[in-house]
Amino acid sequence: MTPAALAALHAAAFTTSRPWSAAEFATLLDSPGILLVGDAQGIALGRVTLDEAELLTIAVPPSLRRAGRGRAVLAAFETAVAARGATRLFLEVADDNAAARALYAGAGYEESGRRPGYYTAPDKRRSDALVLTKSLSGD
């Protein structure tokens, strides 16, 4: 997918926080260790450094939510980063994002930290980021 297509998908998926621009996606895609999985029906973007991976964003169009697409994209991302040598995957999610938290909990992620006031909504309301972790090595 092009940076413009990624930005359009991200804008459709993220209505309560600032979506990423095409320029931001272009910069990320040119960065070392970046991995993108998915298509116009959902993407996961992250990076692998040595044996650790970080999920930077996952986006599914609103019309396709609650149909298993998020689970499928997340599972494909986990498989892809494990193939690159990652044994542990980290991500951050807003503590008030119940749908995303349910997705991650269902996939076996556990809270390993909290960043108070990390996210700012358009109305300037702040929420904590939960740092979630999952072992990809079966331990």
Record the SSE blueprint.
Blueprint: H1 3-13, H2 22-29, E1 34-39, E2 42-49, E3 52-59, H3 69-83, E4 88-94, H4 98-106, E5 110-120, E6 126-135
Parallel strand pairs: 3-4
Antiparallel strand pairs: 1-2, 2-3, 4-6, 5-6
Task: Offer a quick outline of the entry.
By secondary structure, the protein is α+β, with helices and mostly antiparallel strands. The chain is 31% helix and 36% strand.
What would you call the shape?
A: globular
| Topology pattern, helix = H, strand = E | HHEEEHEHEE
Mean pLDDT value: 92
How many DSSP-defined strands?
6
Strand count, sense and barrel status of the largest sheet are: 6 strands, mixed
Instruction: Calculate the terminal CA-CA distance, rounded to whole Å.
Output: 34 Å
Percentage of residues assigned to helices: 25-40%
Beta-strand residue percentage = 35-45%
Given helix and strand content, the structural type is: alpha+beta
**Number of contiguous helices:** 4
Q: Which strands sit side by side, in order, in the main sheet?
A: 1-2-3-4-6-5
C-alpha-based Rg, rounded? 14 Å
Low-confidence stretches: none
Report what the structure shows.
- The chain has 139 residues and is α+β, with helices and mostly antiparallel strands.
- It has 4 helices and 6 strands; from the N terminus they run ααβββαβαββ.
- It has a 6-stranded mixed β-sheet.
- β3 (52-59), α3 and β4 (88-94) form a beta-alpha-beta unit.
- The longest helix is centred in the middle third of the chain and has 15 residues, at 69-83.
- The model has no long low-confidence stretch (mean pLDDT 92).
